[in-house]
Amino acid sequence: MSGESFQRLLAGKKALITGATSGIGKAITHVFLQHGASVVGVGTNQEKGAKLTDEIYSMGHKEAFFFEQCDVSSKAEVDQLFAHYFEKFQTLDILVNNAGITRDGLLMRMSEEDWDKVIDINLKSCFLTCQHACRPMMKAKGGRIINISSIVGLAGNPGQTNYAASKAGIIGFSKSLSRELSSRNILVNCIAPGFIETGMTEALGQEKIEIATRQIPLGHMGSPLDVAHAALFLASEMSAYITGQVLVVDGGLFTG
Ligand code: NAD
């Protein structure tokens, strides 16, 4: 294998990544582009999408990136997203369900709205996008679906019943879907990040971040790139015999 082809693990692949304008989704977008994929990046904020597009174009990936505005919890918007996607590309090789939110609070005080919003954006979105992705992947007899869960979905966390339920739901969803699609060579896996430096964790405040960081065996928070490299592995031929799994990226925090 030449140096060039070894470095470009996703050459010619087409990917759709949700929550692409910040944090982990942005890192996955950059890494996939660097490895030769074409990417449709999805987000709710048109301004952020335009900024990301400029950034990517200035790095020389002009023909390879498109931004699509979409609220992934809305069936109508996801339907439109995939209609636009398939106007641009005939095939979809890789779907990354990364969009997610938190609305933390103790169960006794949690509003129905905060419960529904987290479940809809984090979990229902996977149902909506995968329904569109499955058929073309089945036709192509191959594909990768990578759903971003969390170690909170494995371990639980006080104040995050809604978030933990959505992230545990993603794991059950992905394991079931992997069994539905494995005969067509469509691999479905999850990544469960631990404590990663993004806007989501920054919102916790310095004190909480320091307390959490002390629990991490590797002694520091992860970077979005750490998660993006795991996504690259699961999207590439290097993981061709792996499906229905949860890849934990957490510096040793969750021991199961
Ligand atoms: P982030 O807030 O930077 O990214 C979340 C992205 O989702 C944003 O780009 C946001 O615009 C997008 N999004 C939110 N609602 C949306 C909607 N309705 N439709 C479309 N896009 C929407 O935070 P992040 O840390 O990069 O989070 C990315 C994923 O990683 C999330 O699913 C999160 O739950 C998961 N995760 C993060 C951590 C962490 O420590 N940061 C840990 C475990 C899991």
Q: Treating each run of at least 4 consecutive H or I residues as one helix, how many helices? A: 10
CATH-defined superfamily: NAD(P)-binding Rossmann-like Domain
- Would you give the CATH topology? Rossmann fold
CATH architecture field: 3-Layer(aba) Sandwich
Mean pLDDT: 96
Sheet with the most strands?
Answer: 7 strands, parallel
- Which hetero compounds are present in the coordinates? nicotinamide-adenine-dinucleotide
> Radius of gyration over alpha carbons?
18 Å
Straight-line distance between termini: 38 Å
Number of domains: 1
Low-confidence stretches: none
- Proportion in helices: 40-55%
Amount of beta strand: 5-15%
Spatial order of strands in the largest sheet: 3-2-1-4-5-6-7
Overview of the structural elements:
- The chain has a single domain, classed as 3-Layer(aba) Sandwich (Rossmann fold), CATH 3.40.50.
- Helix content is 48%, strand content 15%.
- It is built from 10 helices and 7 strands.
- A 7-stranded parallel β-sheet has the order 3-2-1-4-5-6-7, sandwiched between helices.
- Strand 1, helix 2 and strand 2 form a beta-alpha-beta unit.
- The longest helix has 29 residues, at 112-140.
- The mean pLDDT is 96.
- The protein binds nicotinamide-adenine-dinucleotide.
- Nicotinamide-adenine-dinucleotide binds at residues 18-19, 21-25, 42-44, 71-73, 98-101, 121, 148, 150, 193, 195-196, 198-201.
